[in-house]
Amino acid sequence: MKTGTKSLSGRILAAVLMLAAVLALSAGQAIAAEKLRVAAVFETPIEEPWVNQIHVALKRAEKELGIEYTWSESVKSADFARVMREYAEGGYQLVMGDAFGAERIARRVAKSYPNTAFTFGSGIGPAEPNFAVFDNWIHEPAYLAGMIAGKLTKSNTIGAVAAMTIPEVNRLCNAFCSGAKEVNPKAKCKFSFIGSFFDPPKAKEAALAQIDQGVDVIYAERFGVIEAAAEKGIPAVGNMSDQWQLAPDNVVTSVVWDMWPTVRQVVNVVKAGVFTSQDFGQFSYMSKGGSFLAPYHKWEDKLPKDVKDMVVKRRQEILDGTFRVGIDESAPKSE
Question: What is the pTM of this model?
């Protein structure tokens, strides 16, 4: 009887342990299968290059990191808080977007949902406990593009048409001009600001006005400028994404902002449960893969070899840390 009792007890114990293992495995699989829910709130249409780069990176995260992703575009300031709250209350663990026009609104909403991670484009710092920031620190490739412009200009007058005189825009325009002046001390820079993040017709009009004033190489910080360059037959530099297809004969290169390193980092820290209010700006630098100069495409054979070699050399110096592109966020003035 004792032997039988022990055998029965052993079988029961083994069955209990097996059941516990199965339940633990099932729970683990359920957790693994649970996707991180991510939402984005954008002030401008998704086609606007700045927000499009965030959107593209989040779509990539959907495929490669297994997140669930949704978004709202063209959200006006009056609706920004409501949309953010709906996502937070709807169980989204991470809310991203561009908050420049609704900066204060986004920060106030975040405080009401301390268990939700918020990460927004911002020119200001992070805020405890759950509001992180990022920005397009792409002044390094802008400087390289300026070096090319300084070599290409025949009138010694280059231009840039940009959104508005805010630090994020100013540093790109100033870097572009500085790069040109390094290789061509005679170069003069003209700047136009359209007062909007997305107004292609106004940007085109401003670009045409600059070209009429002698600008023969132009930086398309905003959408619409490349169209003007194509009409007038002058070289242009794209911005945010590789925009060569907008005008293959005119776009020499583009200053590219790749949001993938930033999005990957943010998603991973939220998944790991170690998200903090921090500045993710460093992930936009060239050294992190967050920005670069696009290929020359149809200009590969048109650009002189010494110009391409010059850019390769300076790019490597930036990556090696032996050359630092200055950050000048003052409002640029036309010469």
Answer: 0.85
